[in-house]
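Entry 12.
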Amino acid sequence: MSQNKKVFYYRPKTNQSTSPTVRWTFVTLGWIFFVLGIIGVLLPVMPTAPFILLAAGCWARSSKRFHFWLINHKYFGKFIRDWEDRHAVPLYAKWLATIMMTLSTAMLFYQLPADMIWVAWLVATVCSGVAVYLFRLPNA
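Predicted 3D structure (tokens):
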């Protein structure tokens, strides 16, 4: 016996451009960002979420098919839908991002020579701002 399984598909919020040049540019950028996001899954030094969100944003402006596929994706879909609906980020993602930024910044302070320490302070300031921004967003 087979069970009837209901499949729910999220309806994409698209704002497609009417210009073919703009659409093709966004399709291409979407694929570049998507590939960078996949590389980020494999490499710990590269973020995944920002690139996947950028891909979704590009495809929302260029291709209903790619955008629909991405927002209904098994792994990335919920994250994108939460962002599109409420600009919400999961709490574990906020903590993970903050921990990784802290570790990366600490390594900069340790690795950079004394005359370049200003770079580490600049990165620390930017990372602190990003962490504050993340934790001000609603939890998904």
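Annotation: The longest helix spans residues 20-42. Residues 20-86 form one domain.
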